[in-house]
Every structure is written in C-alpha cells, then in structure tokens.
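Inverse folding, one chain.
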C-alpha cells in the first residue's frame, strides 16, 4: 500500500480576503503566517515515514515543503505536473475585477467550473490530466512507501475529486485550506481517503 500525503501550500499575500487574487503561475512567496504554517506542517509530519517529497515548482509550494524536507534530510523534488492552474488572462486579477470584465464566464466558473477554460489558460480537465499523470508516476516510483506532495488549491481539489472517483463538476464541494493535509492510501489501482482538508495542526497559529 502506498500512502499519498497531499498538502496545499501555506498562506501568501494573495490568499487573504482583502488581497485575494487569481494566483495561478505568479511566483508568490509565503507571508509570515504561511511560513509559520510550514513549520506547523513539519511538526505534524515529523513521525510519518516519508521517503520522498515532491513540490510544485512555484516558490510558495517549495517554501512550504522545505522545512519538512530539511527535518527529514530529503530533497524537495520539483514536479511540474502539479504546478498551479494557468488562469491565463485572469491571472493577477481580483474576483471583483474578473466579475466586471468577464461576467458571463465568471458566473459559469462559480456555477459550472468543469465547463470553463480560462482565456489563454487551462481548464480543470487539463489540470486533472497532468496532475493524475504526475501522481501515478510518483506512486509507481515509491510503491508501498509514503510520499509527500505540496501543490495548490485548484490542483488539490481536482486531484481529490479524481481520487474519490468524482468528476470535476464537484470541484466546489472540495475544500482546501492553506497548509491543509490530505491523506490517501493507494493499492491495486484504488485510492482510499484517510484525511481530507485536515488543519488541526494549525490551531495554535493566529490567522
């Protein structure tokens, strides 16, 4: 049995409500809260027999993975297949700005996200295809062991849907808070959910 520990990166300046923007491929660092969340993850994962750590190439994911990697004496291996979604023309805009510029498409994103392809960007289907391809390579490479993957909200939501056997229309029913932990066991081609969006390790942190 292979254990997949899937984590969302810690908080950035664009994750807080007052500064929320469509992040995508913008290479944002963690803010002070995000750095504290990364340390909390390290404490939470200290006793897990993790043999490999993979991260989205973006800074906010790498910075989240780094403290755990240092504690376990493992490298952070970049995994391009779990990089954040390409929001295309929406990237860097606030939800209010997108709602004004693309009212119909924004409404569809909120109501039927699986039918949206961002202008000059990706669709959830494309994210799912590349994300699951990367996940399958990792599970095959570390069969019977535990691995840590650090990715992004959209990527994680799509991967959780896929591992639960749900299509992308369920996207908004999956919650992924900053620095949350998801745990799935994989055996004989089947993923079994153990934890989803677990944030109990963050309770001492003031957000």
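Residues assigned per position:
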């Amino acid at each position: 049995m292979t254990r997949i520990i899937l984590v969302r990166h810690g908080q950035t300046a664009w994750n807080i409500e007052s500064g929320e923007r469509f992040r995508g491929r913008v290479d944002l660092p963690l803010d002070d809260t995000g750095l504290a969340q990364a340390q909390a993850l390290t404490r939470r994962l200290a006793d897990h027999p993790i043999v490999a750590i993979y991260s989205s190439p973006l800074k906010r994911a790498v910075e989240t993975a780094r403290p755990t990697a240092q504690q376990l004496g493992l490298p952070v291996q970049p995994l391009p297949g779990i990089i954040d979604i390409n929001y295309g023309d929406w990237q860097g805009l606030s939800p209010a700005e997108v709602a004004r510029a693309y009212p119909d498409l924004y409404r569809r994103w909120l109501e039927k996200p699986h039918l949206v392809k961002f202008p000059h960007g990706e669709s959830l289907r494309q994210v799912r295809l590349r994300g699951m391809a990367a996940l399958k390579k990792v599970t095959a490479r570390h069969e019977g062991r535990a691995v840590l993957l650090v990715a992004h909200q959209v990527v994680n939501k799509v991967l959780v849907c896929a591992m639960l056997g749900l299509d992308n229309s369920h996207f908004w029913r999956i919650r992924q808070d900053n620095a949350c932990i998801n745990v799935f066991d994989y055996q004989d081609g089947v993923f079994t959910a153990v934890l989803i969006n677990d944030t109990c390790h963050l309770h001492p942190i003031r957000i």
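Residues 2-15+29-85+124-202 form a domain with the Rossmann fold fold (CATH 3.40.50.1240). The first strand starts at residue 2 and ends at 8.
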